[in-house]
């Protein structure tokens, strides 16, 4: 086996191969033949799936500087060296089915990375620097132990597919609603109780899967015309019939802390704080999908929590698109009463329209 491996690598060096397949070789160490002398300067794709590797060499980027794709699926890798950030041309990195407990911040230096697969590891958190990957299109972190996603993930402006199934996530950062190219979001089998008010507002987002989040009872009405998966949601405390107010209360469990007031059709006066926030935001943004540059604001004294809220509002009215900050007017549409009832059988969730005023609340129509 060792002789065959040496011959394979030697031939790859001599013939300047761009692809090298070392899958199923029972390797427990990175082959030294790959790192000898000048390494494999022409190699672009390295496949080392289903071996028994526990680590990667620090000089990997030095010896394989032109790697574009690196596949390390199904090994026993525990840690990634900081030098991984030196693989300047790397576009695809597959570390699925390993034993990773920590992901080094240097992963954020892989500015050419387009596909990052980290499923089935033991990760409890992701480094904020992952938000520096502005070319990233696919991120799979399913089957880990994540309790949250980085707030800076919204900086991955090219992200199209985010998969985070089977983790311990209790919420979705509302900043993800600013990912305008996101087409598919999958967060099944977590601990979600609430979804961001704006989730589904982007026309690009077409597929949302939140199946088997048993405490999730409300879906933003923006998702009504999307392809959604919500089987097994809302089953922890079923409210199948009865008082609509009780159902609404169930659907609004886990509301963000920033929500200070729940408005109703009889509340005709918007609180002064909300009016001030809306005015400040309107004066400093020209588009609903442009980040508010706090440096352009006039000198004002606000708590950091409100400044953060100015940049990333709670959401936009589902009726008129008015930004909302501290008050929402919710309107409930039980899924069982909609045209989708026959598609989603094992669920008790409801669609919730979040409006900015009693007037919008009265006039909102789920199908209009």
Give a verbal description of the structure:
The protein is α/β, with parallel strands linked by helices and 368 residues long. It has helices spanning 2-14, 60-63, 244-251, 272-284, 304-311, 358-363; strands at residues 19-21, 45-47, 69-71, 92-94, 115-117, 138-140, 161-163, 184-186, 207-209, 218-220, 227-229, 261-262, 315-316, 323-324, 327-334, 350-355. The strands form three sheets. Strands 1-2-3-4-5-6-7-8-9-11 form a ten-stranded parallel beta sheet, with no helix packed on it. A four-stranded mixed beta sheet has the order 10-16-15-12. The N and C termini lie far apart (67 Å). The model is unreliable at 239-243 (pLDDT under 50).
Question: Layout of helices and strands, plus pairs?
Answer:
Elements: H1 2-14, E1 19-21, E2 45-47, H2 60-63, E3 69-71, E4 92-94, E5 115-117, E6 138-140, E7 161-163, E8 184-186, E9 207-209, E10 218-220, E11 227-229, H3 244-251, E12 261-262, H4 272-284, H5 304-311, E13 315-316, E14 323-324, E15 327-334, E16 350-355, H6 358-363
Parallel strand pairs: 1-2, 2-3, 3-4, 4-5, 5-6, 6-7, 7-8, 8-9, 9-11, 10-16, 12-15
Antiparallel strand pairs: 13-14, 15-16
